[in-house]
Amino acid sequence: MTTNHDFMDYWLSIDSIQNKVKKELENVLQAEYSLSLKEFYVLYYLSKTPDKKLRLQQLQEKIGLSQSALSRLVGNMEAKSCGALEKHVCTDDRRGTYTRITNIGEQKLQKSLVSFREILRLHLSDIDVEEILKQLLEKL
Length: 140
Known about the structure:
With 140 residues, this protein is mainly α. The protein is built from six helices and three strands, in the order ααβααββαα. 16% of the residues are buried.
């Protein structure tokens, strides 16, 4: 009995595109802004909140890192050498820690968003992503 696995070709196509774009994003963000892709995501998620801050647990859920990995990443971004984030202890619950994006972090984010958009446009302009997704769904 043979099973049709055509859906895998479409899935692997999407995965390949995403990996290629992520690699390029990582290289450009690191070279031009000294940011990893995960650090960029931290800045982005913080910038989207009304008061520009999140509890580390909330950020951990969004970024997809372990608690210790996120703590290290945020700690490095809070360090004087980077200055993109600042730590705040929760006044209601002393065990809770917030991190907030600083003006430096906001400037890095805004500049890097321009490069991010350019890279996406470059890599995705020749690809019919909607058609690939449509084909994948049809094969499932």
